What does this fold into?
Amino acid sequence: MYNQLRKRQHITSQMRRNNNVNIHHNPLIQPNRFTTVSEKEEKKPPKWLKNVKTCSEEYDILSKKTREILNKSRQSKRKKKREKFTDEIFCFHSSDKNFKEEWKFGQSPWNFPASYRMWLFGLPDSGKTAAIKNVLVRTDPPFERIQILQLGLTDKNNGKKKSEWSELEGAEIINSVPEPDSYDDFSKKLLIIEDMDFKGMDHEDQSRLDRLASYTSSHRNLSIMLTAQDFFDLQPSVRRKPSVIVLWPTVDLDSLKCMARKSGLTPDDFAKIFKTMNKHDSFWIDLTDSSPYKYRKNGHIKIEESFFNH
It folds into this structure.
């Protein structure tokens, strides 16, 4: 058997050298079989069968097309190389904030750009309601919808407003924290919350108030004015969200220290400014974007930052 294989290999190699043999590597042909050119006659396809190509020709065509496709894909990848970005921050427009107002040259210091969150802290009869009304009469354009939340503001018998807000025509009186979903448009709105028992609120009301002061205010054009007698009456999540802080003189040093940290000042700065004030004077800290009146006295008197450096 071994001798027969050796003999066959010898004949095969000799015929290859003489170019008298075609070896077919077709899997249908049994291995180690070969036919000579003289034994094999190439059969021409019939006339009715056109465009017939041999296996080798088909392979060449396919391989050529494959190479073309690969070259095109490589070229397209080279063209579609991702651009190199700089390290700067890109600005992306938010469709939910088309209503945002900005400070303009010559604008009144009372006319805060909507939407904002104003927290007012002061003892009873210090002038918190008067400060709110001074802002309202100078707001331009005016608010399209105003709601007032204060317990005991309406009479149970006739539902009329008390005299404190009688001059505010068209205001809606409510007795509970509104649902955030009730503000579903982008009209200019204002919610006034006066001296509520914030510590006595249940979990649902606290959750609503937190939602109103965050998403609803910034995405639904809702400005909020909130009054309280003490900074620590508010829950921490709401306490951190004001864009305007209004303070009246107080003897609570802990509250002043905490508010000083929130505003970027020191307790000594607060003590310095309050020495120049009486009971009804107020210190305004405006944290709105590009405000020309960051520190003020009584809402309209600008305090230069250099005042705190001396």
User: Anything to note?
Assistant: The chain has seven helices and eleven strands.
